[in-house]
Amino acid sequence: MDKIWLIVQREYITRVRKKSFIIMTFVGPLLMSALFVVPIFLMQMSSDEKKIVTVADAGGLFSGKLPQDEKSSIRYIHAPTDLETAKAEFKKSKNSALLYVPPFDLANPTGIKLFGRENLSLTLQTSIERMVNRQVEAARLQKSGIDQQVLDNLKANVDVDTVNLSDEGEKSSNSMVTSGVAYFMAFLIYLFIFLYGVQIMRGVIEEKTSRIVEVIMSSVKPFQLMMGKVIGIAAVGLTQLLLWVALSSIVITGVSAVAGIDTVAASRTQQLETVAQSAGATPKETEDKTAVMYKSAMEGFSNLNLPLIIGSFLFYFLGGYLLYGALFGAIGAAVDNETDTQQFMLPITMPLILTFIVAQSVMIRDPNGPIAYWMSMIPFTSPIAMVIRIPFGGVTAGQLLLSMTLLVFGFVATIWIAARIYRVGILLYGKKVTYKELSRWMFYKG
Amino acid sequence: MSNILQAIDVHKAYDAHVALNGVSLDIPERSIFGLLGPNGAGKTSLIRIITQITGADSGEIRFRGERLNPSHIAQIGYLPEERGLYKKMKIGEQLLYLAQLKGLSKADATQRIKAWIDRFDLRTWVSKNVEDLSKGMQQKVQFIATVLHEPSLIILDEPFSGFDPINANLIKDEILELREKGATIIFSTHRMESVEEMCDSIALINRSRKVLDGPVSTIKDTFKTNTYEVEGKGRLMVIHPDFEVLEHKERENGYFYDRIRLHEGVTPNDLLRYLIGQVEIHAFREQIPSINEIFIRRVRETMPESLVEENV
Question: Which domains does chain A have, with CATH numbers?
Answer without folding.
Answer: 2-40+173-441 (no CATH), 50-152 (3.40.190.10)
